[in-house]
Amino acid sequence: SGGDVRFETPSGNITCDLSDEAVHCEILRMSYTPPVPKPPSCHFDYGRRVSVGAYGPSHFDCYSDSMSGIAEQTLGYGREIRRGRVGCLSEEPGLVCETVGGTGFVLSAQAVELL
Question: Which residues share a beta bridge with 49?
Protein backbone atom coordinates (compact mmCIF):
# COMPACT_ATOMS: atom_id res chain seq x y z
CA SER A 1 0.00 0.00 0.00
CA GLY A 2 1.02 3.61 -0.38
CA GLY A 3 1.15 3.82 3.40
CA ASP A 4 4.42 1.92 3.65
CA VAL A 5 7.28 3.77 5.27
CA ARG A 6 10.85 2.54 4.89
CA PHE A 7 13.30 3.79 7.48
CA GLU A 8 16.62 3.08 9.11
CA THR A 9 18.10 3.74 12.53
CA PRO A 10 20.68 6.56 12.92
CA SER A 11 23.51 4.00 12.97
CA GLY A 12 22.30 2.64 9.63
CA ASN A 13 22.47 -0.86 11.11
CA ILE A 14 18.73 -1.57 11.11
CA THR A 15 16.39 -1.07 8.15
CA CYS A 16 12.61 -1.51 8.39
CA ASP A 17 9.56 -1.55 6.18
CA LEU A 18 6.47 -0.52 8.15
CA SER A 19 2.89 -0.74 6.87
CA ASP A 20 -0.45 -0.87 8.60
CA GLU A 21 -0.35 -4.67 8.21
CA ALA A 22 3.12 -5.42 9.59
CA VAL A 23 6.68 -4.30 10.17
CA HIS A 24 9.75 -6.13 8.87
CA CYS A 25 13.18 -5.13 10.17
CA GLU A 26 16.62 -6.34 9.11
CA ILE A 27 19.91 -5.83 10.92
CA LEU A 28 23.25 -5.71 9.09
CA ARG A 29 25.80 -6.22 11.84
CA MET A 30 24.93 -8.31 14.85
CA SER A 31 26.70 -10.37 17.50
CA TYR A 32 23.69 -12.27 18.87
CA THR A 33 22.62 -15.83 18.12
CA PRO A 34 18.95 -16.03 17.18
CA PRO A 35 16.96 -17.41 20.15
CA VAL A 36 14.87 -19.46 17.73
CA PRO A 37 16.98 -21.89 15.68
CA LYS A 38 16.78 -21.80 11.89
CA PRO A 39 13.99 -24.15 10.79
CA PRO A 40 14.94 -27.02 8.45
CA SER A 41 12.46 -25.63 5.91
CA CYS A 42 14.49 -22.42 5.56
CA HIS A 43 17.13 -22.70 2.84
CA PHE A 44 17.91 -18.99 2.78
CA ASP A 45 19.12 -16.34 5.23
CA TYR A 46 17.81 -16.43 8.78
CA GLY A 47 18.32 -14.59 12.05
CA ARG A 48 18.79 -11.02 10.84
CA ARG A 49 15.22 -10.19 9.90
CA VAL A 50 12.27 -10.07 12.30
CA SER A 51 8.63 -9.24 11.69
CA VAL A 52 5.39 -8.70 13.50
CA GLY A 53 1.96 -8.51 11.93
CA ALA A 54 -0.74 -6.12 13.14
CA TYR A 55 -2.14 -8.88 15.36
CA GLY A 56 1.13 -10.69 16.12
CA PRO A 57 2.94 -12.88 16.83
CA SER A 58 6.49 -11.76 16.12
CA HIS A 59 8.87 -14.13 14.35
CA PHE A 60 12.14 -14.46 12.45
CA ASP A 61 11.84 -14.37 8.66
CA CYS A 62 13.45 -16.71 6.17
CA TYR A 63 14.54 -14.56 3.23
CA SER A 64 16.78 -14.47 0.17
CA ASP A 65 16.95 -10.74 -0.53
CA SER A 66 18.33 -7.75 1.35
CA MET A 67 16.59 -4.66 2.65
CA SER A 68 19.83 -2.70 2.52
CA GLY A 69 19.38 0.62 0.75
CA ILE A 70 15.57 0.75 0.77
CA ALA A 71 15.30 3.34 3.57
CA GLU A 72 13.73 6.66 2.62
CA GLN A 73 14.26 8.30 6.00
CA THR A 74 16.13 8.00 9.28
CA LEU A 75 14.19 7.50 12.48
CA GLY A 76 16.14 9.55 15.02
CA TYR A 77 16.71 8.35 18.57
CA GLY A 78 13.69 9.07 20.74
CA ARG A 79 11.39 9.22 17.72
CA GLU A 80 8.43 6.94 17.12
CA ILE A 81 6.64 6.07 13.92
CA ARG A 82 3.29 4.31 13.66
CA ARG A 83 1.04 2.82 11.01
CA GLY A 84 -2.27 1.46 12.20
CA ARG A 85 -1.74 -1.03 15.03
CA VAL A 86 2.04 -1.25 14.59
CA GLY A 87 4.70 1.21 15.75
CA CYS A 88 8.46 1.45 16.19
CA LEU A 89 10.48 3.49 18.64
CA SER A 90 14.14 4.25 17.91
CA GLU A 91 16.40 4.26 20.97
CA GLU A 92 20.17 4.12 21.29
CA PRO A 93 20.13 0.67 22.94
CA GLY A 94 17.98 -0.70 20.12
CA LEU A 95 14.81 -0.51 18.08
CA VAL A 96 11.50 -1.45 19.68
CA CYS A 97 8.61 -2.38 17.39
CA GLU A 98 5.31 -3.55 18.77
CA THR A 99 1.60 -3.75 18.15
CA VAL A 100 -1.04 -2.17 20.33
CA GLY A 101 -1.60 -5.72 21.60
CA GLY A 102 1.96 -5.84 22.95
CA THR A 103 3.50 -8.32 20.51
CA GLY A 104 6.67 -7.32 18.71
CA PHE A 105 10.43 -7.27 19.15
CA VAL A 106 13.45 -5.40 20.41
CA LEU A 107 16.35 -5.47 17.96
CA SER A 108 19.95 -4.41 18.53
CA ALA A 109 23.41 -5.53 17.45
CA GLN A 110 23.90 -7.29 20.80
CA ALA A 111 20.52 -8.97 21.23
CA VAL A 112 17.11 -9.61 19.82
CA GLU A 113 14.04 -10.27 21.93
CA LEU A 114 10.66 -11.40 20.68
CA LEU A 115 7.85 -9.83 22.72
Answer: 26
